[in-house]
């Protein structure tokens, strides 16, 4: 293992979660992060900080040798905030639900094994498609775009993880700066993020690909966010959305990993994305 880390570096591909940053969309629950206990009582500022360290049911008074013993927070987290993955149940009901579109691929997030959330990273640069963006619409990545990449870099195979480098992560900036990161879906005067067309997802599936990733807000387009989700998740594929720093990876040769929180009956979840890159 020591030899491995001497020959590889770890590149973080995760967006920072912070209340000052946009969520997936203004119509969805925001990210809320609150202090439960701080080292001392602070009654002023944007969030009063409470010192309530406990030992059993008795509050522990801070001393010079042992100040209040811990700092901890709690949060409200919409599962598809920041860097996250879509489990099939995001749009595909479980097989035993009897609901329309239900099938055997309708697995919850905690049922997805970690081996399915990693693969050989294949960085597909589609930043040029942003020039085609129109107000209220996403430019679409087509199967032909993937095929052109294969002509230059070799065919995609089972176990590969295509990472679509759209450049949309540059819009993930702190409020109050205006940003189209989330608002492009609702504000039709803004151009949409680059999304993946259904035929491209079907082409990737036929190539044996089961994990598809993007640095855009969603794999789906502003004008039709659901179609590509049904096409991919309905076939048992998994999506990782909201990546960043894909330009720091080589086109091929690194290994992509996504580690979400393991939450029972989840539709997916935020997590940490990274790549092992040969140094």
Summarize this structure briefly.
This protein is of the alpha/beta class. The chain has helices spanning 2-7, 143-153, 180-183, 198-206, 227-233; strands at 8-12, 32-37, 54-55, 58-59, 72-76, 84-86, 118-125, 140-141, 160-165, 195-196, 211-214, 238-241, 255-260, 268-278.
List the helices and strands and how they pair.
Layout: H1 2-7, E1 8-12, E2 32-37, E3 54-55, E4 58-59, E5 72-76, E6 84-86, E7 118-125, E8 140-141, H2 143-153, E9 160-165, H3 180-183, E10 195-196, H4 198-206, E11 211-214, H5 227-233, E12 238-241, E13 255-260, E14 268-278
Parallel strand pairs: 7-9, 8-10, 9-11, 11-12
Antiparallel strand pairs: 1-14, 2-5, 3-4, 6-12, 6-14, 7-13, 13-14
Helix pairs in contact: 2-4, 4-5
Beta-strand share of residues? 15-25%
Q: What's the helical proportion of residues?
A: 10-25%
Counting DSSP E segments of at least 2 residues, the number of strands comes to 14
Shape descriptor reads globular
How far do the termini sit from each other?
A: 15 Å
Task: Give the H and E element order.
Answer: HEEEEEEEEHEHEHEHEEE
Question: What is the CATH class name of the largest domain?
Answer: Alpha Beta
The average pLDDT value, as a whole number, equals 90
CATH architecture call of the largest domain: 3-Layer(bba) Sandwich
């Amino acid at each position: 293992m020591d030899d491995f880390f001497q020959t590889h570096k770890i590149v973080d591909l995760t967006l920072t979660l912070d209340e000052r940053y946009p969520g997936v969309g203004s119509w969805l629950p925001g990210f809320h992060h609150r202090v439960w206990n701080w080292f001392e009582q602070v009654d002023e500022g944007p969030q009063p900080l409470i010192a309530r360290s406990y030992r059993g049911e008795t509050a522990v008074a801070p001393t010079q040798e042992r100040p209040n013993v811990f700092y901890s927070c709690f949060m409200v987290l919409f599962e598809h905030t920041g860097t996250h993955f879509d489990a099939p149940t995001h749009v595909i009901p479980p097989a035993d639900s009897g609901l329309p579109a239900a099938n055997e691929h309708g697995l919850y997030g905690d049922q997805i094994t970690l081996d399915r959330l990693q693969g050989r990273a294949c960085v597909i640069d589609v930043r040029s498609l942003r020039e085609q963006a129109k107000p209220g619409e996403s430019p679409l990545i087509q199967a032909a775009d993937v095929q052109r990449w294969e002509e230059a870099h070799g065919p995609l195979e089972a176990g590969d993880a295509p990472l679509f480098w759209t450049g949309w992560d540059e819009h993930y900036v702190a409020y109050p700066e205006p940003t189209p990161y989330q608002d492009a879906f609702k504000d039709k005067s803004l151009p949409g993020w680059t999304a993946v067309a259904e035929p491209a997802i079907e082409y990737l599936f036929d190539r044996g690909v089961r994990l598809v990733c993007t640095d855009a807000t969603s794999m789906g387009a502003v004008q039709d966010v659901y179609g590509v989700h049904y096409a991919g998740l309905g076939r048992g594929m998994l999506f990782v959305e909201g990546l960043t720093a894909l330009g720091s990876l080589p086109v091929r040769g690194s290994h992509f990993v996504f580690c979400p929180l393991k939450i029972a009956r989840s539709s997916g979840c935020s997590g940490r994305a990274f790549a092992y890159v040969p140094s």
